[in-house]
Design goal:
Largest sheet: 6 strands, antiparallel
Helix content: under 10%
CATH architecture: Sandwich
Number of strands: 10
Radius of gyration: 21 Å
Order of helices and strands: HEEEEEEEEEE
CATH superfamily: Immunoglobulins
Strand content: 35-45%
Length: about 140
């Protein structure tokens, strides 16, 4: 009897609180790694060229049509442009959601990483993220 009384009292005093995340933002940090030359020999250490990039953080999931490149005007979602440091590191503040990160090159975007079901790889931002790695294989061969 006392157990049921305490349970009722607990449920009345501990009402769930719903938290709105509309104005919540998260810090997303990452690195672009540039691979060039022969990448076939897995036993040799591959030099990674460090350089500056422009990236797009595009809202949503995007189909790849079997190619790592996509025309910029084909994107139908909002996006943020990110300029990396000279070593490829970047940081951006984003609202919660799903984002696809592309390398921006002229009027095209590039990402040679796919999710296995017909889309470019994407991430779900629901907390701070410290370790996104985007690989640039445009000058590499396998």
């Amino acid at each position: 009897m006392i157990d049921s009384f305490l349970l009722t009292l607990f449920l009345i005093t501990k009402q769930p609180v719903f938290i709105s995340m509309e104005n919540k933002t998260f810090i997303v940090k990452g690195l672009v790694q540039n691979y060039s030359g022969n990448q076939m020999d897995f036993n040799k250490v591959k030099p990674i060229v460090k350089k500056s990039y422009k990236l797009l953080a595009v809202e949503g999931v995007h189909a790849h049509q079997g190619k790592p490149e996509l025309e910029l005007n084909a994107l139908d979602s909002n996006y943020e442009i990110i300029k990396t440091k000279k070593n490829g590191e970047f940081q951006i503040v984003l609202k919660p959601g799903i984002y696809t990160f592309f390398i921006l090159k002229d009027d095209k975007v590039y990402l040679n990483h796919f999710d296995g079901v017909g889309n470019y790889s994407h991430i779900k931002v629901k907390d701070n993220i410290e370790n996104i790695i985007i690989r640039d294989y445009q000058n590499a061969y396998f």
